Amino acid sequence: MSEPRKPRRPSFLEPAALEALGETSDPVAALHAAHESAAALLRTGRAAADPAVTQRLIALTDQVGLDTLALVWSVRPAASLPGALWRLYLLREWVATDPSLAAREYAAGIRFTEPNHAVAGVDPPGPAEVREVADEILRGAFDGDFAVTLERAAAFCRVVSSGRADVTAGGKAVLTAARLQETATDLSTCATLWRRGKLE
Hints:
The protein starts with 14 loop residues before the first helix and ends in a 5-residue tail after the last helix. The N terminus is likely disordered. Helix 5 runs antiparallel to helix 6 and helix 8 crosses helix 10. The chain is mainly alpha-helical and 200 residues long.
């Protein structure tokens, strides 16, 4: 019987070595990049008094693509600044891609979640209006109360989730409605953390 092998000590590799092994980046560097880029984006937007700058930040995914933001932010915890911004941009992108569906699901959800409808503020709930509100929500991250922005996005998700569960048949609709409810909870948590100065 052969002698048992001694456990190997973990090795710490430089970023170049990680890339040589097929890793696309240093995980620690990626973590810092996600949080620093989110903080810088929010800081830049909130410091700018120029509506043109704010509009460019709202339309960021139109310029760099949602996939680019996903690479940097989507893997971060939901209760973090990059997690919050990722969800706001994702919400805007979904509404912009299919405003008719967003409007139909939103309209169907109003009767179940009237208080959330009042917070989200889509009236009347047509395709143009949901697109406008999705942009307004993201605009609030840069020129308004960020906690209120997060709560408004959460309310929007709750209304759409309720409507989706009501008007769209099938198990997939129920699953995605549940995920939207989770997103709403995540955004509300982020709003609380922001007010406490703990959203990083």
